[in-house]
Hints:
This protein is of the alpha/beta class. The protein has helices spanning about 35-50, 70-90, 95-100, 135-140, 155-160, 175-185, 225-235, 240-250, 295-305, 320-330, and strands at about 1-5, 10-20, 25-30, 60-65, 90-95, 110-115, 120-125, 130-135, 145-150, 165, 215-220, 255-260, 265-275, 275-285, 310-320, 335-345, 350-360. The strands form three sheets. It has a seven-stranded mixed beta sheet, with helices on both faces.
Amino acid sequence: MKLLCLDTALASCSVCVYDASTASVLAAEQQLMARGHAEALPHMVARVMAQAGITYGDLGRIAVTTGPGTFTGIRVGLSFARALGLARNIKVLGINTMIATQAAVSESDIIVVHQAGMSGLFYFYAGADIELLRPQEILPRLGNGQLTLGTGAEAIIALSGRSDLKRLPQFDLPTAFGFAAYAASQPDPVGMPDPVYLREADAKPQKDALRGLAGLEIAPSQDLGLLAKLHAASFENAWSEKDVAELLANPGCVALLATSDDGPIGFLMYRAVADEAEIITICVDPAYQRRGAGLQIVSTTLQLLKSFKIGSMFLEVAAGNKEALSVYVRAGFLEVGKRKGYYTSKNGETEDALIMRAQLN
């Protein structure tokens, strides 16, 4: 039996033709890509089939990754496999992304950890069910000398602070040629495969079609009046000029003002002690929100602190503040703790604070 194997579930597009009778890869190709799978996949399949020297009539099975992964990528691979299977009367086998990642490595005791988009969560697989977990739920489950694979492996290992965990980073992404032998060993599928979705999509409709920010610059500022005005535009409990002055008087406390061609739009205040720093506040004028300013301010601050040999940056954010959480996760922060009932609203309701950390050096 000859198989056509496809993977478009994560930041890669790969195709393989595998001959089960000789346990050999006849032809294979992989391209790393965050998007563009739909355009790349048909051409890649045509090239690999030509290199293998076979026709679609020679295929006994098509194998395709079903997720979890990027929503668009999963749909691209499944749609292509289903259409080809129906058109040529070829059975289509679905393989989840975690098994597809694990199958490329011969060792038995493997944990696969993939990032779940920008959610701050991770897909976790240790040979049983696929779980969607927070980092602190994964750390206790890493055994001594554990081999850890996946797009989230480096982040989890960094959070663990352990040096005994084993890595094979070249196997972090699933590849069609990596799971071809596994696909050939499975029984015939019954029906077409379905996608594996464990979370909602990251993509959300934009509330406003705002233009991008032009000429954004970020620099330290001591303009108390301006900083207080920007804070008041963002928060109900606004800081006075006196409040800002008292904060900036603390050792290691700095305010970074963001300005564009339109003028000042926001600022971030942080405090650094030894090789650690924390974000005290970040605010963006409501007229300029949802245009990438918050992410750029945070990312620029992290790069600045990295050049100062700061090892890690911390922050606290309300668990229900989804927009802020999205910005922080995209900037590289991961949840490392929680303060129960830390925030109290005007009506007396409490909300947890999530403690997040970005590892810099």
